[in-house]
Amino acid sequence: MFKFLRNKLLNKKWLNACLLLGIVLLVAVASCNPMFKNGAMDMTLASKFDSAIEDNNTYSAVVGRQGSCSTDNFPDSASVLDRINAYEKKWMSYIDVPVLSRQNRLFIEGTYAMTGLGSRRFFSVNYMQDMSEHINITFGEGLDTGKPVEGTYPVIINQQNADTYDLVVGETVSIDKLVDKDGKPVTFTVVGIFEPKDTSDIYWKETPADFDKMIFTDQASFDETVANYGVLTIYYATYNMLDYAYIDHTNASDIRYYLSAFSKADGNFIQNFSSILADYQDDATSIMIIIWVLELPILVLLLAFIYMVSSQILEMEDGEIAMLKSRGTSTKQILGIYFGESAILSLIAIVIGIPVGYLLCKLCASATSFLKFSFGDTHFYKLTWGMLLYSLIAAVIAILFITLPVLKYAKNSIVEQKSKLGKVNTKPIWEKAFLDVILVAVSIYLLYNYNKQKSDIALSILAGNKPDPLIFLNSSLFIFAVGLLILRLIKYLIKFIYFIGKKRWSPAVYASFLQITRTVKKQGFISVFLVMTIAMGMFNSNMARTINENNQERIEYNLGTDIVLSEQWKMGAYLDKDKKSHWYYEEPDFERYTENLSNSCKHLTRVIYDDNTTIKVGGSELPDSVLMGINTKEFGETAELKSGLNDEHWYNYLNSIATVSNGVIISSNLAKEYDLSVGDSITYARYSPMKTKEPVEIASPSGTICAIVDAWPGFNQYTYEKDNSGKVVEKERYLVVANYAYVVSAFGLTPYQIWGQLADGHDYQEVLDTVEKQGILLKSYQSVDQEVQNMLESPLVLITNGLFSLSFLVAVILCTVGFLIYWITSIKQRELLFGIYRAMGMSMKEINKMLINEQMFSSVLASLAGYGVGAAATALFVKLVAIVYLPESHNIAISIAVNPFDILKLTIVVVVMFIICFIVLRTILKKMNITQALKLGED
After folding, report:
1. Which string of DSSP letters, residue by residue, matches 580-607?
2. In whole numbers, what is the pLDDT of the chain averaged over residues?
3. Is residue 752 within 8 Å of residue 609, measured between CB atoms?
4. What is the sign, positive or negative, of the torsion defined by CA atoms of 635, 640, 644, 649?
């Protein structure tokens, strides 16, 4: 039996090879789904942990506990640490993730102390396990080498406490409430001042900046203090920094559950990443939906291709099946033969398809744009057992698609089969039922309905809800439905052209039109393939380009320039004679930037940016508004703004306030809301940086409106927040731009940002390296290049670019192969007909002309229609689908991005496909035994 099946497969080896190709691609695309999905989810989770570290400036995967132990049961630090270890052992028995670092701090409750110079201060005595391995002593000695005053214990303090509380090395600190049995208070000597070896060391969950009013001693001194000075309670704070590389899609849900259970069972348990896991699980759902809806058109195309090829094989073997049926072979046995063939092909496809799927997944994961691959880091994407399961399911579906159509042929004997040959092709069901028109109407209705709900869709996505899959699928439905409609119209067009010229056509042209009209049903399949391939290629390329370019434009606009640096300023406070507190900032030397960054930055400027300003106008107060204090000349040289966003060039607005000391530029939404115009006055207030129950206003200067703008570098007027019901709502912000000197004179010197425009050939990393070499401590930085790169490497964008590219590549392969199959079998089947034409006196040149005419009115016409459908789909659907990726309202509205080079690449691919097909067909014609066909024709 196996030998029979093998010979049967080899009998039509090229068609079966094409069928195998379709099954291999089906298995490959299906098998890459779990790998791509898992990799994208793992990448999403890792990026959320990374972002949390940057946003919060602290390690983002910490579990721990803050509690206390009675000295009756836990008399020393070792016993407390044993208890801490017991907690850790219990947590880690459930959360099976390696611990990268631990920070255990034991302390005695803080109280007032007297310094050797007579100052009264508030301090707590602390012991931190393994602290000496992570610090540098900047002044004095360490705890293990420092020599305290006799009768005292050694302590070290951080530089901030030394400055704030006027402590120096050698000074003593006595704590009155901690006394020995003779009533003598415990005394400590400051033997050193420390700083962390590396501020990025994950050991520092609590950083030296958090060590306000803390002094640190060694373990022995801490235990002696507890034992000899009546300490009743030892407090502790323990933190375990987990290796979040081991938290992935397989255990994220379980870990989130355990964190919730620990928090409910233990009120002192602390962790800082359950919110990350919750956000991830919301995103994971969206990722799965997007992957499936973007893969679905590819899978449908592949199944259609398999059906087309298997149908072509069945048509060619129709007589063979009828012969078997007439000789007594049962329908079940005939089905068994084709089931065996398809099973053999499917098993081979699984062996080949899984490795191909792995490579396709890696290729998709490295896509930075449509058909553009970086081949960067794809370590998140790994082989998984789910690939085998998906491959088996795909293989079973392929077997059904190949085997079930056999039922149609297995019922006919030779007599019935011969009687069918003379029947004229009837209209397909979809054409009779006007399914194309119905599907186009459904697609347009869905589009209309979704366009009315754009704002609700955007808010739903911002709230973390999963996108509606139909938003994606509707574009594919439209392309498919219009493809069928175009096919109907092409059929009518060909009939019309044939009708008006049938009495004037040459024999070759007449014969070609006759062939087209008689085989329009067979040609329809490949024509729809051509329309869908080209239309989907155009739509996918334009969709990817729109997402990428709009994202990049928004990043550039939001930042305002190439790089923005924020240095850590030192803040001081003092009391005046009336006991009223005052604050001040110590400005770092700005000349360090202009001197050291002259090579990497063309221009630099200082910008005061405060998004907590209140604008007062018309008796109303508008909190959370944005104030920007700028030097107009420097700002104009450094900042960038896309043209066309304002009524005139933004330099004119800069010029308008340059000569008016208290002049301001305001946003158009503020002017519209309160009917303001140029020449009116507004008031704006800023607040004290010192933390108080109620904000303390620094000043409320007035400004004369000199210009009104729709857009401004670094200002996005839309923000989002949750209301009391938890629903995400859109909120508008307002802008005031004033002169830097006026803002400083009104509010005092406050921290500013340094905006820089990079010089040609230099990048942001050079700037950061230079800043680091100068010992400048940055509070934060932002770079257009880095944020654009992060955007292109974000899981959602990678998924979209990758699957759009994969969809197009697969469609081109299928279309090329399907195109070849159709025309090769068509020519083979018409060999006798060509002989008749030659016997009637038609030359080979005329036969070639006939084939070219067929190509023009089938393939070329369908290809041109594909471009039209792609353009229509782009115009109708791109902005709607882009909402999923860009849901936020913005000063820069979503615009459709079409790159002619993308269309050129698509056209080149299609032209190359036609050239390859033409060469193959030409070769077949040359090799065809036309002499024998000629004799048959004469007979």
Report:
1. -EEEEEE---THHHHHHSTTTEEEEEEE
2. 83
3. yes
4. positive
Q: Note the pTM of the prediction, 2 decimals.
A: 0.79
Distance CA 924, CA 680 (A): 82
- What residue numbers bound the domain in which 864 lies? 424-559+783-939
> CA 491: distance to chain centroid?
43
CA distances from 896 to 165, 459, 544, 681 (A): 60, 21, 10, 39
Q: How many CB atoms lie within 10 A of CB 237?
A: 20
- Which helix (H) or strand (E) segment holds residue 70: the answer is strand 62-70
* Amino acid in the structure at residue 68: S
Provide the 8-state DSSP code for 630: E
Residue whose pair of structure tokens reads 């006991």 in the numeric block: 579
The distance in angstroms from the start CA to the end CA of the chain is 40
Same-domain pairing of 297 and 335: yes
Residue type at position 102: R
- The Cα–Cα gap between 10 and 344 comes to 12
Which of 423, 441, 467 delimits the end of a domain? 423
Residue 865's contacts (CB-CB under 8 Å, 6 or more residues apart) are: 483, 486, 490, 531
Lowest mean pLDDT among 233-237, 303-307, 523-527, 793-797: 523-527
Shared domain check, 83 and 182: yes
Residue position matching structure tokens 């206003």: 697
What is the spatial distance between Cα 247 and Cα 234, in angstroms, rounded to a whole number? Answer: 34
| Residue 564 covered by a domain | no
Judge whether 565 and 754 are in contact, CB under 8 Å: yes
d(CA 64, CA 84): 9
Residues linked to residue 301 through DSSP beta bridges, in sequence order: none
Looking up tokens 């310094």, which residue turns up? 115
Q: Rounded to 5 degrees, what angle do the CA atoms 201, 206, 208 make?
A: 80
Does residue 764 lie in a domain region?
yes
Residue 13 belongs to what H/E stretch? helix 13-56
Question: Are 801 and 369 a contacting pair, CB within 8 Å?
Answer: yes
**Rounded CA Rg of the chain:** 38
CB 140 within 8 A of CB 191: yes
- Residues 6 or more apart whose CB falls under 8 angstroms from that of 727 comprise 459, 463
Residues 103 and 161 in one domain: yes
- Specify if 278 maps to a domain: no
Sequence-ordered list of residues with C-beta below 8 angstroms from that of 424, at least 6 positions apart, any chain: none
Q: What backbone phi and psi angles, to 5 degrees, belong to 483?
A: -60, -45
DSSP state of 244: G
Mark whether 308 and 384 lie in a shared domain: yes
593: tokens are 């930037």
- In this structure, the answer to whether residues 100 and 246 fall within a common structural domain is yes
Q: In this structure, which amino acid lies at residue 851?
A: L
Of the candidates 892, 894, 875, 874, the one whose C-alpha atom is nearest the C-alpha of residue 884 is: 894
Count of domains in the chain?
4
Residue 907's φ and ψ, nearest 5 degrees, are -65, -40
The one-character DSSP state at 246 is: G
Tokens representing residue 885 in the block: 């990726």
Domain end (from 747, 776, 805): 776
**Counting every residue, how long is the chain?**
939
DSSP assignment letter at 226: H
Phi, psi (deg, nearest 5) at residue 685: -125, 145
pLDDT above 90 for 462: no
668/265 Cα distance (integer angstroms): 53
Residues 873 and 911 in one domain: yes
- Count other C-beta atoms under 10 Å from residue 651's C-beta: 11
Tens-place pLDDT, residues 17-63: 888 888 899 999 999 889 888 888 888 888 888 888 877 778 889 99
- Output the pLDDT for position 937: 46
Residue 380 in any domain: the answer is yes
- One domain for residues 265 and 373: no
In terms of domains, do 178 and 188 share one? yes
Residue 691, SS3? coil
